[in-house]
Amino acid sequence: MVPFSRSTQPPDFPDATSPAPLELLPPKKSMVRSLLAINMFWRTFILLAVLLLGSMLAWLKTMRELEFEPRALQTAQQIAALVNLSRAALQYADPIARVSLLKAMAEQERVRIAPHEPSDSYVLLDDDALDRRIVSALESRLGAGTVVASAVNGEPGLWVGFTINGDPNWLHTDRERFNPGGGRTWLVWLLTTGGVSLAGAALIAGLINRPLKRLLVATSRVREGDFDAGQLDEGGVTGEIREVNIGFNRMAQRLAKIEQDRVVMLAGISHDLRTPLARLRLETEMSVADADARAHMVADIEQLDRIIDKFLDYARPDHMDLKPVSLNKIIDACCYAVRDHGDMRINVQLPEQLMVMSDATELARVLSNLLENARRYGKTPGTDVADIDIVAKGRDEWVLIKVRDRGPGVSESQLADLSKPFFRGDTARTAATGAGLGLSIVDTAVLRMGGVFQLANTRTGGLAAHIKLRRALR
């Protein structure tokens, strides 16, 4: 009888001599991706956004050259004309009329003439390139030494220094009166246009990405073996998408036919071999007189029968109905089934009532294959006994299961190939003959149950099989 122990205490998973848990193991493909490796939607959106923003900047530059510059020159002409008219009017007016003229200009035109005192402090108009262009144009019209300020003695506005009969004066008016940029209208217009353009870019990127996203979902379903659910719409709007969908559907149909043929072929071959093997065993037991030869022949026939069982397991259809299953009961049943094997010692550490979403028969087949693999190839060095640990623990919405032996393990270069059909590892783990399908059956069954299967060497020797299944809600 197989000696095995059972612990209901929460297991130390993984223990100090175990490899990292399944979610911490290095994946088969690196999860570190470049920041530039973004999905199709964001790549299309960013490219459209860059194109739109570049177009807006080019348009703004063109407007500045074709609109702002002429308006700056026009503004300089208007200011120069106002200064010259004010100078001429005040220069030739008598003192009494001059007072009335200054008052009328301030009230009606919002133009104020003030003397330019030596103690006046002023801030030159030099806010941006456009202001400097206006000042340059005013100097060319009013003469060198013309002062244009944005504030005098702390009072803001547009200040232009000029002389009347040799006396320096200031002409003051509102700066907005000659604002060539139109205030903040351009900024609001640009922000509004930019927002609408980006929203349109997102809509266009979504429309372009939608059929590709459907293709991605269908590809994932076909990869999982659900060929019918992966059918795409063959009446697409664009010809290219329609052709891709038609080609994908035909490919999925062909894969489904190939899978069906594979299942039928393997099942048929396995079934047809069963009858002659049964007759051969019966005839061997009845006709061979040598007991030792008869035992060897019967053992060979039994081995062929087990290989046929492996083919049948491997050829099972992919579809299965997942239901809440007690992991404790499945493991107890698997350990009970191998109780007569004297070359195994099994240590089980499980919490109470651990439920997983799986098919009970498939899960039992998975654990039985792992136990058989450990019994054959995972014997503790120096002994004829395989020491096997079965540890499980619930973690969030997942259940992590580990089946570990203390054998010689395998080379790191062969770990990824152990679950491939008919692959045989190094001689340390191939002392016995077999079909080479055990771990491939485990990998296929776990994937059909929506889980993850992975193999790893332990730090203290031996091979550990990690299984990750969905946790069932009680």
Can you give a write-up of this model?
The protein has helices at 40-92, 95-108, 129-142, 185-223, 239-287, 291-314, 327-337, 360-377, 438-448, and strands at residues 4-7, 112-115, 122-124, 147-152, 155-164, 167-173, 323-326, 344-349, 355-358, 386-395, 398-405, 452-457, 463-470. The chain has 474 residues and is α+β, with helices and mostly antiparallel strands. It has three domains: 4-30 and 320-470, Heat Shock Protein 90, CATH 3.30.565; 45-185, Sensor histidine kinase RisS, periplasmic domain (Beta-Lactamase); 227-317, Orthogonal Bundle (Helix Hairpins), CATH 1.10.287. The protein has a six-stranded mixed beta sheet. A hairpin with a 2-residue loop joins strand 5 and strand 6. Helix 1 (40-92) runs parallel beside helix 3, helix 5 runs antiparallel to helix 6 (291-314) and helix 8 packs antiparallel against helix 9. The longest helix has 53 residues, at 40-92. The protein is rod-shaped, with a radius of gyration of 44 Å. Mean pLDDT is 77; it is low at 10-36 and 427-434.
